[in-house]
Amino acid sequence: MNNLEKLFFASQSLQAFASGYFRYVSELLNSLDQDAVGAFMQTLENARVHDSTVFVVGNGGSASTASHIGNDIGMAMVKVAQHHRPYRVLPLTDHVSVMTAVGNDFGYEDIFTKQLAIHYRDGDVLVVISASGNSPNVVKAAEWVRERQGTVLGLLGFDGGKLKELCHVPIIVLTPKGEYGPVEDVHLILNHMLTSWIQQKFVTRTAAVPLGPSTEPSQELYAI
């Protein structure tokens, strides 16, 4: 029995269940490895400075999180600091015709690797999102990038699964297996937190120091 099942049977009402659920997600957030969060953000910033692409992959709810990250972090600089180089974030979950073509012609496990074969360049970064850490197509994408000496970041859950060992920086929401909702909640909160951090740092820096079109903030701007 996982924590959500225990919470349900211990709750006398929806209100009690909701209170317990919110408390549980808060506990998961507080248990995250903050050094890993900092390293995750620094890797994204290094990719931005070097004009590298950050690819994002996932299935199901994690696919929607990949799209969400592409929207939020990809648009973060466009909204607040248009004179700075943006984060080049490309979810590989959004091109339905390509994914279905690859799935039909090669197999579902290749829907990300075949796209990487087209777009990936040396120095690019892959963000893998998986609650179980064992999704075959996501694992295969991580292996593909590792074989090319690329960097793999992970938003994972449960015990991290196979992806834990494939990620250079894994952020793991440690829960019993099967608790997809809380894991995906935390992944989305991390996306919103990092997007807010990026925007506030650039707004603050730009307001304090006039920056030319080619001027980039210092690395310590991203120490978390």
How far is it from the N-terminal to the C-terminal residue, by CA? 36 Å
The SSE order reads HHHEHEHHEHEHEH
What does the overall shape look like? globular
Number of domains: 1
| Rg, Å, rounded | 18 Å
The CATH homology group name: Glucose-6-phosphate isomerase like protein, domain 1
β-strand percent reads 5-15%
What structural class do helix, strand and pairing data support?
Answer: alpha/beta
- What's the β-strand tally? 5
CATH names the topology as Rossmann fold
Description:
- By secondary structure, the protein is α/β, with parallel strands linked by helices.
- The chain has one domain (32-206): Glucose-6-phosphate isomerase like protein, domain 1 (Rossmann fold).
- It contains nine helices and five strands, in the order αααβαβααβαβαβα.
- The protein has a five-stranded parallel sheet with strand order 2-1-3-4-5, with helices on both faces.
- α2 packs across α9 and α4 (61-80) packs parallel to α9 (180-208).
- Residues 208-215 and 217-224 have low confidence and may be disordered.
Features:
single chain, 224 residues, alpha/beta, Rossmann fold, 5-stranded parallel sheet, 9 helices, 5 strands, 55% helix, 12% strand, globular
Give a short summary of the structure.
This protein has 224 residues and is an alpha/beta fold. It contains 9 helices and 5 strands.
Ordered list of secondary-structure elements with their pairings:
Layout (H helix, E strand, L loop, with lengths): L2 H8 L3 H17 L3 H16 L3 E5 L3 H20 L7 E4 L4 H10 L7 H7 L5 E6 L5 H12 L3 E7 L5 H4 L2 E5 L6 H29 L16
Helix pairs in contact: 2-9, 4-9
